Amino acid sequence: MRLNSKVVGIIVLAVMFGGIYLTAGLGWWQTAGGGRGAGNHNGAGESPPEVTVLRGSIISSDRRGITIAAADGQSLYIELGNPRYNRSIGFAPQLGEQVTAQAFIPEGKTAYSAVTVTLDRTGQVYVFRDTLGQPLWSGNHAE
Questions:
Q1: Which residue has the higher pLDDT, 17 or 61?
Q2: Which of 45, 58, 59, 141 could disulfide-pair with 136, CB 3.0 to 4.6 Å?
Q3: 94 contacts 58 by C-beta, under 8 angstroms
Q4: 34 φ/ψ sector (left φ>0, alpha ψ -120 to 50, else beta)
Q5: To the nearest 10°, the Cα dihedral for 69, 75, 78, 83?
Q6: Which of 48, 76, 50, 79 shows the shortest CA–CA distance to 63?
Q7: Who's near 124: CB < 8 A, 6+ residues apart?
Q8: Are 66 and 83 in contact (CB under 8 A)?
Q9: Any idea what the Cα angle at residue 50 is, between residues 44 and 136, rounded to 5°?
Q10: What is the pLDDT of residues 74-122, one digit of tens each?
């Protein structure tokens, strides 16, 4: 039996589209939930980071974070994250401004990562990460 080119073409297309459909379906399933946690596709069961409250005045800032002088004299760097996101939420504190930050130290790092930073003078709260410590500018949070 000999197959003509039309039949072969239809078979090739069916296999190709079937593979694309299957791959797309599996890809969605594997990344649902922002890729957080092995085998965890909705973030359920993931424990939130241990958050510390830090208070002090801003002594320096850069594109990705701020350094505060705590009451005990320590200088603490607090990573805020994506500079574009920081600007989009209007975060532009002044040097010397008193802040209260809720932050945690991610595994394998030495600097704090901010969940929220509150400007003490105005009470304005800026949110940088969700309760699981995931950045609001990436993953499921990105617009």
A1: 61
A2: 141
A3: yes
A4: left
A5: 80
A6: 79
A7: 118
A8: no
A9: 60
A10: 999 999 999 999 999 999 999 999 999 999 999 999 999 999 999 999 9
Span 42-52, pLDDT tens digits: 455 578 999 99
Encoded amino acid at 108, one letter: G
Q: From 125, 101, 97, 123, select the one nearest 112 (Cα to Cα).
A: 101
Could you please report the per-residue DSSP string of 83-139? HHHHHHTT--PPTT-EEEEEEE--TT-SSEEEEEEEETTT--EEE-B-TTS-BTTSG
Q: Which amino acid is at 71?
A: A
Burial, 121: exposed, middle or buried (Cβ in 10 Å; 0-12, 13-18, 19+)? exposed
Which distant-in-sequence residues (6+ apart) come within 8 Å of 49 by Cβ?
Answer: 104, 106, 115, 132, 133
Across all residues in the chain, what is the average pLDDT?
79
28 three-class SS: helix
Q: Is the dihedral of CA 130, 134, 135, 141 positive or negative?
A: negative
